[in-house]
Amino acid sequence: MNQSVKLCTGLLLSALVFSSKSIATENLVFVHGAHFDARSWKPVSSYLSSDVNVLAVNLPGRNADEDASKIGLSNSAKSLCENIRSLEGNIHFAAHSQGGAVVHSAIGICPSQSIKSITYITSVAPLVGESAFASLNADDEKHYFKGVSYNENNHRMEIRNWTHFNATFAQDASSSQTKQLRKLAIDEPAHIGEEAVKYGKAELDRISKHYVFANQDKIISLESQLKIANSLNIHSVYSLQTGHLPMLTNAKELAMILDGIVENVASD
Predict the structure, then answer these.
(1) Cα–Cα distance between 129 and 43 in angstroms, integer?
(2) pLDDT attached to residue 156
(3) Confidence (pLDDT) at 23
(4) Which is higher by pLDDT, 260 or 11?
(5) What does the pLDDT look like over 52-81, one tens digit per residue?
(6) Do the beta carbons of residue 118 and residue 207 sit within 8 Å?
(7) The pTM is what?
(8) 17 pLDDT more than 50
(9) How many angstroms separate the CA atoms of 156 and 223, rounded?
(10) Cβ 231 vs Cβ 152: under 8 Å
(11) Cβ count within 10 A of residue 86
C-alpha cells in the first residue's frame, strides 16, 4: 500500500512539473525606437498569436513636458527593467532601431535569467563601450537629418520637415500608413545615443539572438544592418522588403516572424 501511494505521489509530482513547464508564459516585450512610443507596435500586436503575452513599453521622454536633458541610455534601460519586473515567465525582447541599445544596456541591470531572446528589427546593437549609433554610416546620418534637427533649448531631435521624414523613415508606406505615421511620430530626447553600453557580455552570450533586416531602410541602411548582425552571435535572420518601419508597413509579416521566434525559442 505504501509503495502504491509513493508511486502515485511520484507520478503526480512529475505531472505537475511537466504541466508547469508546458504552460510557462512567453512574454513578448516591444521596445520602440527613436521618435516613436508603444503605440507604434499596435498593428503588429493585432496579428500575434493569443498564446503570447504582449507588453509594449513606453520609454522615458515620450511626453513633451518631460525634461529631455535628463534622459539618457542608462535611465531608459532602468525604466525598461521596471516595466518588465512584474512579468512572470520567459521574456522575449523585440527591439526596433535605437531600442536595441536600450535592451543591451538593460541586460546589465535587469535580472537576466528570464530573458530568453532578443529580436533586432532593423536595430542597432552596441557592444560594451560603444554608443548606440557607432555602427551607422555617413549616409544613414545624412538621411536622418533631412527631416530632423536638434533643438538645443529643449534637448530634443525635432521633426522639422515631414516630407523628408516620410521619405527617409517610411518611403514604402501607403497613403493611409503615412497619415498614421504623422499621428505616431514624436520629437525624440537627443542624448540617449551619447552613452556607452555597459552590459555584461556573459549575459548577452547566453541569450538567443535574431535579426530582421529591412532591405530598403534609409535610416539604418542594409549595409549597417549587416555590419551590426555580423558583430553578434545571431541564431536566425529574416528579411523584409521595407523601409525603417516594418511594424507600420509590414505588420502581418513581422508578427509571423516574431511568433515563430518565440515558439522556437520556447520549445528549445
Answers:
(1) 35
(2) 98
(3) 60
(4) 260
(5) 999 999 999 999 999 999 999 999 999 999
(6) yes
(7) 0.90
(8) no
(9) 27
(10) no
(11) 7
* More confident: 145 or 268: 145
**DSSP result, the chain:** -HHHHHHHHHHHHHHHHHHHHHT--EEEEEE--TT--GGGGHHHHTTS-TTEEEEEE--TT-STTS-GGG--HHHHHHHHHHHHTT--SEEEEEEETTHHHHHHHHHTTS--TTEEEEEEES-----TT-BTTTT--HHHHHHHHHHEEEETTTTEEEE--HHHHHHHH-TT--HHHHHHHHHH---EETTGGGSBP---HHHHHTSEEEEEEETT-SSS-HHHHHHHHHTS--SEEEEES--S-HHHHSHHHHHHHHHHHHHHHHH-
- In this predicted structure, the answer to whether residue 122 has a pLDDT above a threshold of 70 is yes
Domains in the chain: boundaries: 25-267
Residue closest to 34 by CA, chosen among 153, 163, 194, 177:
194
Reading the block at residue 105, the C-alpha cell is 544596456
Instruction: Say if CB 68 and CB 189 are below 8 A apart.
Output: yes
CATH architecture of 25-267: 3-Layer(aba) Sandwich (3.40)
Please say if the pLDDT value at position 6 is more than 70: no
210 vs 19, residue with greater confidence:
210
